[in-house]
Amino acid sequence: MGVNGNAAFVFNRVLQRNTHQPKGLRAESEALTTTIVTHLNFGRLREAVSILFASPLPFPFSLYARLFQMCSTNAAIVEARKVESHLIATFSPTPPIFLLNRAIETYGKCGRLDDAKELFEEMPQRNGGSWNAMITAYAQGGCEKKALWLFSSMNRLGICANEITFASVLGSCAAVFELFLSKQIHGLIVKYGFGWNVILGSSLVDVYGKCGVMSDARRMFDEIENPNAITWNVIVRRYLEMGNEREAVVMFFKMIRANFRPLNFTFSNALVACSSISALLEGIQIHGVAIRIGYEEDEVVSSSLIDMYAKCGDLESARGIFELPSSKNLISWTSVVSGYAMNGRVREARELFNEMSERNVITWNAMLAGYTHFRQWEEALELVFLMRKETQDVDHVTLGLILNVCAGLLDVELGKQVHGFIYRHGLYSNLFVGNALLHMYGKCGNLRSAKLWFYQISHWRDKISWNALLTSHARHGLSEEAMTMFGEMQWETTPSEITLCTLLSACANIFALEQGKQIHGFMIRNGYEINVAGRGALVDMYSKCRCLEYAVKVFKEAPSQDLILWNSMILGCCHNRRGRDALRLFELMEEEGVGPDHITFQGILLACVYEGLAEIGTEYFNSMSNKFCIIPRLEHYESMIKLYSRHGLMDELEDFIKRMPFEPTVTMWTRVLSACTEHGHSRLGKRAAEKLNELNPSTQYHFQIMDTSRGCK
């Protein structure tokens, strides 16, 4: 300690003086005390300590206590060392222990744990307060494990802790997720009669919640006779952090009914919970509570309200709060930009973004996330270049989004440049960035680089990493390799539902029924909750593997059938040439009140092709726009051309092509030419050949009638 590091060692020797004060010096001591107090009253700490340090006289204990308190408040480490040295030298060999404890507390609050530890170890005598002060210093200084170790030593020596020590130790347990020790401390709290203490009760709720044992946290909360606002805030926040957003909202309203005034952060936590589960109605009620108790203009609450309304899709309400005079700050600007961007109103989001006088990395990320979410890759890339021009601030989220842009553009070279930037700046160990790199290489088809990077992150990769690699191989037709990787994956981690859905798609692509059944069995044995996506993947796999009865069974076992599952079943019937069953399913789907989409009609038109139902197929095609307000896509026009061509309806085919809102593609004209050749329709056949020669001059097409016995038109 000391001014330059060792106060207890240096000043002990510099200031060794006789501490017996003659009567004649008492007046001088009192005068100096008055002068020091005057300096302290005017905030002149340095001058006050200089006077004390220059004097050989002892001063009242209360003065030392006040000096230590002011040193703590002002983080004045040099002055704190001088006061401690004067205290030790003046009252040697037995300086007051309680004042040395204040010195330890001061060093802890100033962040000088080495000084605190040195003084603690050199103390000729210690009491419980000394241990408490040192443990608290460690706990507040981020040395949680040292605090816990010291507490264990203190407990072994039979020294009793006080409420402050228990609170500090519980905070340390929460920081390092030390559940077992927390329960032991809980027992000691009860044993020493501190069970009534609401601060300790709140700390126990906090530590149990942080350790993921919400049942114990709730039990502890219910045992507190008089919870305060902080206690309520803790239980709401812990439910939120553990993913039980609905219970967090329930607890907030219980707090209101119990006539407690929530903290602004309690409002914020409850509103974040509403955002996470799209609970707009509850969010509106919380907004009403905030207005009633005068919190609407609080910066934390208003920003959380804007974020809640934006994430729940009520952009008008979000904008209304944002336009209040007290609401426009960087956080609220970012929330509004993010809300507009993620709700598809990207152009308005960009206008707001351009109006901002100040931006941070979160703002840039919000705008970039909007572009990437809606696959506006060119605009996203332009924003990336603008960001690099205006700021050097990037974080792992920025890099992940930029890599998504590279993947969307299939620009592996740009992705490699980003990879180089990540490596140079030491960000490669961030798992979010690492998985984004895997996704980029896989999406761009550079599976060699994807595998290489996958092996390089072997020490910190997770389920998402495996899923990215498996998906890349399945997407590029390497389903067998994906299945092999699944076997390797199980030695390292438990697959997620997303991974299993990817593997089911891989099985469907290579008609691997047995492997698909094994994955289905794996899901059942390991208690996976098969959601809509999982059931859709199972139906698709069984259908493509020509095992329609299993597909139907999975479909019927679903607690509810949504559009995705209906589509999977309809397409499954089509894969098995059961077109009339597909049409019957469509009728049942309408009876259930489930509206179709473009994928539904892709299956319906395919069913009509297989069954030769040209008239019904035409009706369904026309109903897309007339009845269901669905604009037919390229694949629907291809299905209609296939329907007319396969069944020789050449007049209908010619009329359909004339009424198409765009020129047929090369694939369409090729099918038309083949149909005209087979069915002897010279006029349309010659036109098809001419169009193909225009579109693909490198290959010459000629119209010839295959069967000369048919008459030409």
Low-confidence stretches: 1-20, 708-713
Mean pLDDT over the full residue set: 87
Secondary structure tally: strands: 0
Amount of helix = over 70%
Shape: elongated
End-to-end gap: 107 Å
* Structural classification: mainly alpha
**Tally of alpha and pi helices:** 41
Fraction in beta strands:
under 5%
Instruction: Report the biggest beta sheet as strand number plus sense, adding barrel if it closes.
Output: none
Whole-number radius of gyration? Answer: 37 Å
Q: What this model shows, in words?
A:
By secondary structure, this protein is mainly α. Helices cover 72% and strands 0% of the residues. It has 41 helices and no strands. Helix 4 (61-74) packs parallel to helix 6. The longest helix is centred in the first third of the chain and has 16 residues, at 26-41. 43% of the residues are buried.
Fold blueprint:
Blueprint: H1 7-14, H2 26-41, H3 45-54, H4 61-74, H5 77-90, H6 97-109, H7 113-122, H8 128-140, H9 144-156, H10 163-175, H11 179-191, H12 198-210, H13 214-223, H14 229-241, H15 245-257, H16 264-276, H17 280-292, H18 299-311, H19 315-322, H20 330-342, H21 346-355, H22 361-373, H23 377-390, H24 396-409, H25 412-424, H26 431-443, H27 447-456, H28 463-475, H29 479-489, H30 497-509, H31 513-525, H32 532-544, H33 548-557, H34 563-575, H35 579-591, H36 598-611, H37 614-626, H38 634-646, H39 650-659, H40 666-679, H41 682-695
Helix pairs in contact: 1-5, 2-3, 3-5, 4-5, 4-6, 5-6, 6-7, 6-8, 7-8, 8-9, 8-10, 9-10, 10-11, 10-12, 11-12, 12-13, 12-14, 13-14, 14-15, 14-16, 15-16, 16-17, 16-18, 17-18, 18-19, 18-20, 19-20, 20-21, 20-22, 21-22, 22-23, 22-24, 23-24, 24-25, 24-26, 25-26, 26-27, 26-28, 27-28, 28-29, ...
